[in-house]
Amino acid sequence: EERTRDAETKTHALEKAQIELKESAEQLRQSSNYKSEFLANMSHELRTPLNSILILSEMLAENHDNRLSDDDLEYAKVIHDSGEDLLNLINDILDLSKVEAGKMDLWFREMDVYEIPQHVHNLFSPIAKQKDLDLNVDVAQNMVEIFHTDVKRFHQILNNLLSNALKFTEQGSVNVKVELAQVTPTMKQISDTWLSISVTDTGIGIPKDKQQLVFESFQQADGATVRKYGGTGLGLSICREVVKLLGGWITLRSTEGEGSTFTVCLPSLPDGNISTLISEQEV
Ligand code: ADP
What we know:
Strand content: 15-25%
Structural class: alpha+beta
Low-confidence stretches: 279-283
Protein name: histidine kinase
Bound molecules: adenosine-5'-diphosphate
Number of strands: 7
Helix content: 40-55%
Organism: Solibacillus merdavium
């Protein structure tokens, strides 16, 4: 009888612990939701006054009647540039909080894969030229023409990877490669068509022990790069989360002092239905 009582006490304790665990998980989830909601609201409220700062400082910097002294003109430009940095930061925080709160709306539609080179060149040729870097985009021969994904988010990922590649490279090249990914049986359950897009640079590279870290929020490979190159440390965490939302994953191969390759693997999803998410480890 004593043994039965003992077992009962143990079961009770176990049940109690389970309930407590559930409650704290719920509390955690709720406070995480509050945090995301707060950040989303704050970011929105910050953007309104910031827009006035941006528009007005831009008008000032145009210096229509040549009323500004050289110094004043310089100040107006600094106000405008700093405003833009702040806007980028706010947008990043807003994006990250949206993803975390599961509130990032996706719109899957057709994307013409052969338009990728044009997109890249339009946006990044000026910076590449300025830094005297080669910028190449190569679309594989056997590539499908039409691919289904959230095109806006796809561009966001690509832009993030390219601006990093160009930022952290002082000489050499940045190469973008678009091809069909090898589809394993697990991947086939999600889509027959997977795209692999990689951005390779001949830049500073990322040390082995920092390669996981760079995908975390507000993390940068080392303090010196922050001072030299600026940035918020949010770009790659946004990339990772958005890529996950699109059903894929992102990997990094890098050698310090030689360069880095970021590769994104994405399924074509005509109905935008990601029923099963798989992680790279399963493939
Ligand atoms: P940010 O570039 O704003 O700092 P990211 O999240 O995009 O934030 O990148 C995080 C860090 O990863 C960077 O600060 C940098 O240290 C490292 N990193 C990212 N891309 C590259 C790259 N192509 N080459 C070298 N280091 C990189």
